[in-house]
């Protein structure tokens, strides 16, 4: 699937359908059910992508963690505003997760990168061997920091909009969250490309 097509599909399930369900459905079902169904579309789509792309690795486990935590929080929520605030709590949980991984010197950015290499055909044993001679280990810390900053940005935007507008800010929360997410996807992609260049250097040295 092309990148453009993937972006269009993502926007439909992460933005278009949730906005439509919320704005068109709340008059019929009430705020809570409309918000629950709106959030559920994104959760189910994320779960579908996980199983369809077969991300059965640490990256996949992190995705499943996010899906299950989000679903659990939504199920125990009593109001539409509670469901919106669940996004804030989810951001806080991921900030903690990424932060702990750095404190333990096992940055998740490194784990995600090794999973990415495996997805493109590089054996895990080969990746671990290259890792020993890789001089850019700090880049994995930087990659993890980008993930942390992304969660901080999303947390700040969601909390600010919800404090200011309450449940009526649902549209703004969805739109601005998606914009911020794509900005950070671009940053993460750029960092991965840069790490790849350094990584290929290790490969070249090993083959000489």
Unreliable stretches (pLDDT < 50, length at least 5) are none
Q: How would you state the average pLDDT, rounded?
A: 88
Strand content: under 5%
Q: What would you call the shape?
A: elongated
Sheet with the most strands, sense and barrel status: none
In total, how many domains does the architecture comprise? 1
Radius of gyration: 19 Å
Encode the helix/strand succession as letters: HHHHHHHH
> Could you tell me the number of beta strands?
0
Verbal overview:
This protein is mainly α and 208 residues long. It is 87% helix and 0% strand. It has one domain (3-207). The mean pLDDT is 88.
What are the main properties of this structure?
208 residues, mainly alpha, 87% helix
Record the SSE blueprint.
Blueprint: H1 3-29, H2 31-53, H3 58-76, H4 80-103, H5 108-119, H6 124-132, H7 138-165, H8 170-207
Helix pairs in contact: 1-2, 1-8, 2-3, 2-4, 3-4, 4-7, 5-7, 7-8
């Amino acid at each position: 699937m092309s990148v453009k097509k993937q972006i269009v599909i993502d926007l439909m399930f992460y933005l278009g359908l949730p906005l439509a369900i919320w704005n068109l459905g709340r008059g019929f079902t009430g705020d809570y059910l409309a918000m629950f169904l709106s959030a559920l579309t994104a959760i189910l789509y994320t779960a579908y992508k996980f199983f369809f792309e077969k991300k059965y690795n640490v990256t996949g486990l992190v995705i499943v963690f996010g899906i299950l935590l989000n679903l659990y929080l939504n199920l125990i929520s009593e109001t539409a505003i509670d469901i919106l605030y669940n996004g804030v709590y989810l951001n806080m949980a991921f900030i903690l997760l990424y932060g702990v991984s750095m404190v333990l010197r096992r940055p998740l950015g490194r784990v995600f990168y090794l999973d990415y290499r495996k997805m493109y055909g590089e054996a895990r044993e080969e990746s671990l061997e290259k890792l020993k001679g890789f001089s850019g280990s700090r880049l994995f810390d930087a990659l993890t920091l980008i993930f942390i900053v992304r969660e901080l940005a999303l947390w700040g935007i969601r909390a600010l909009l919800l404090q200011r507008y309450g449940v009526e800010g649902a549209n703004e929360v969805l739109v601005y969250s998606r914009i911020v997410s794509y900005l950070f996807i671009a940053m993460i992609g750029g960092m991965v490309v840069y790490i790849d260049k350094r990584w290929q250097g290790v490969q070249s040295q090993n083959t000489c």
